[in-house]
Amino acid sequence: MEKPRRPWYRMDNASFMYSSIQREEFSAIYRFSAVLTERVDPVLLQAAVDRTLPRFPGFAMKICRGFFWYYFEPNTAPGPYVKEDTADPCRPVRFNEDSGWLVRFYYYRSRISLEVFHALADGAGSLTFFKALLAEYLRQRGAAIPPGEGVIDLDEPPRPEEREDAYLRYAGKAARAIPRVPKAYQNRGTPEPFYTFHVTMGFLSVQELRGKARSYGASITEYLAAVLMLQLIEKQKRERPIREKPVTLAVPVNLRPFFPTETLRNFIITVQPSVDPTLGDYSFEQLISLIHSYMHLTAEPVKLRAAMTRGVRLLLNPFLVLIPRVLKNPIMLLSYHLTGVEPYSAVLTNPGRFVVPECMRPYIEHMEVVQGQATVARPHVSTISYGDTFEITFSGVQKETELEREFFRFLVRDGLHVRIESNR
Amino acid sequence: MSYCVNCGVELNPGAIACPLCSTPVVNPNCHPDAAEPGFFPSRKEEVAPVSRREAALLLSSMLLSVAICCGLLNLVFYSHIWWSFFIGGAMAMLWVWFVPPLLIKGMFIWVRLTLDVLAVGAYVCLIAVALDGMDWFLALALPINVAAVVIIPVLYWIIRTRRCSLLVSAVLVLMAIGLFSMLTEYICDRYLIGEWTPGWALVVLASCVGLSIPLIIVRRVPSLREEARRRFHM
What is the DSSP letter of B137? Predict the structure, then answer.
């Protein structure tokens, strides 16, 4: 009798990059948390996970090591199991531990957390999965949550479109990189011993924040990017370097609004608003205007498609294809260091509003997002909003709190009410 | 509800200090509520380190397989010379360098350094035995090796136990290089020409002293030291 062939799935370029550069001191893991209005029941949560995961096969994968590439295989191991949350979130993933699961589920009091390895999906894909999980958990608790309005029906079979490599589908003829800036101010701090991970969250009112951003003629993301950039410029000045370096932010852009797709896998690209402090002093209003214009000029389909095509072409490069994986990993690590670490001072990611159907709203108090450990000791900044609560997270392994302190102090000085929570 | 007097942000009712600036919370109307459960969990999860035993086993098997393969090849190719003897010795030396630190947790670094230098000495001795060159080994290689065994671990021990600053450590390393050069030249001269005629080692020593003097001055003058620290982000 012929042995059934085990299916396998090719990685997209973002997945391969994250798998290649994964190591003990770096974690391409991110976390979404929903804080509910009632305490979480772990038994019901486990039941919800068991019911939801088969509908999302893209999250029930393990990473296998091929001779030339990493690839995905469906994970048939028991689990993943719901665990009680720990003080240090987003622990680095080890492909051969925890039965190879690349998603984790935690609970703490009224908080449900989902941690995802970035090779599986981006924030938008994971939020779709998380929404379905929350809906199923609430159903298990007795609430009537019908599918629809963004909540995927768990009874329907998984659709192939959700597993498509949208980068490959939309790659065009022209391949160009988004113009890069030289090595940026690195904003490095003193790393904590392995494995201590600091998370500081700030909570604001969405209405207040939107009103403030609009008063400057900007969106919320542009306003926060300008605040972050100003704090980085001033921090660099305080350190009195021999020569100041450009301050550059990495802002991931969701490509779905530009290129329609139903994929739940990675489909993002990073844009880099930057200023060179050696040219002179920028006022806050000038920074906002600069970021606003940059986002409008850069985040347009033709440029984004060309940048995306470059990533795809790189993965199809015949010379790179023929290099064994063990040799590819150091090349990818070096490439990531040169193109993903050195040109940036900080990462600012905003997955946007978390919208749920009306019937789910009374059960969810607020949402949180945390990005995992950066390759160097500097904070990542991530934001998410739900209802009227806007949440901003600074996460990293650095001992110092200077950047987040000055960031939140600026918001307070600008007339916004900020509530702070931290695991420090 | 308390606010940080420095940052102006609202804090958790259980907070005893601001997480942003560490300013203690002093609110006579609202004492920190110790019973208030933390916003974040406090349970620490131990992260199991990568198995060092397995890594040691893998490395040992790799080194052993290289030595065995070369031994077998030696039976076929150039079998009149025992060339695989040198490769086997090199593998043994690499084993001493890399495997004991994986197996013994918290091995003192100066013990490790001594072992490393001794392994080099043993390998050179092996070559000397194979080439029938015990005279140059005893008169040249062994004394140089002993000098390295003494200088390198002692240097490390001084830097580590005295908690030397970066500048002092740099001066000590330079001095050790100068001293080692002098000893090497002395041993070489005694073996080759029978007497010591200082030459190239003096140039090395003078360079090391020349580099050390500005470092000592920077170390001694507080304003210079502060400026160097600021400029080099030390």
Answer: I
**Is residue A1 situated within a structural domain?**
no
Coil vs helix vs strand at B30: coil
Looking at the fold, whether A72 and A97 belong to one and the same domain comes out as: yes
H runs (alpha helix) in A239-283: none
CA angle B10, A249, A278 (to 5 degrees): 105
The predicted model gives A141-168 an average pLDDT of: 88
For residue B8, the chain A residue with the least C-alpha distance is A412
The answer to whether residue A424 neighbours chain B at the CB level (below 8 Å) is yes
**What is the DSSP-derived secondary structure letter of residue A341?**
I
Q: How far are the Cα atoms of A167, A194, B59, B67 from residue B55, in angstroms, in the given order?
A: 38, 20, 6, 19
Question: By a Cβ cutoff of 8 Å, what residues of chain B touch chain A?
Answer: 4, 7-12, 18-21, 37, 39-45, 47, 50, 230-231, 233
Domain identity same for A215 and A158: no
CB contact under 8 A, A420 and B9: yes
DSSP label of A122: -
Model confidence pLDDT, tens digit, residues A228-287: 999 999 999 988 888 889 999 999 999 999 999 989 998 988 888 999 988 988 999 999
Alpha helices in A198-337 (DSSP H): 206-215, 220-238, 284-298, 301-316, 318-322, 325-336
Complex ipTM > 0.90: no
Contact flag A88-B230 (C-beta cutoff 8 Å): no
Among candidate residues A119, A138, A165, the one where a domain is terminated: A165
Q: What is the CATH number of the domain that holds A69?
A: 3.30.559.10
Whose CA is closest to A417, among A216, A131, A206? Answer: A206
The CATH number of the domain where A257 resides is what?
3.30.559.30
Give pLDDT, residue A392.
Answer: 95
| pLDDT tens digits for range B165-209 | 888 889 999 999 999 999 999 999 988 888 888 889 999 999 999
Residue A150's pLDDT band (cuts 50, 70, 90): confident
Domain range for A301 is 170-365+374-422
pTM: 0.74
Residue A170 falls in which region: left (phi positive, over 0), alpha (psi -120 to 50) or beta: alpha
CA quadruple A100, A101, A102, A104: dihedral sign? negative
Nearest to A421 among B7, B12, B21 (CB): B12
Closest Cα of chain B to A144: distance in Å? 29
Specify the pLDDT at position B232: 61
- Which of A147, A165, A183 is the last residue in one of the domains? A165
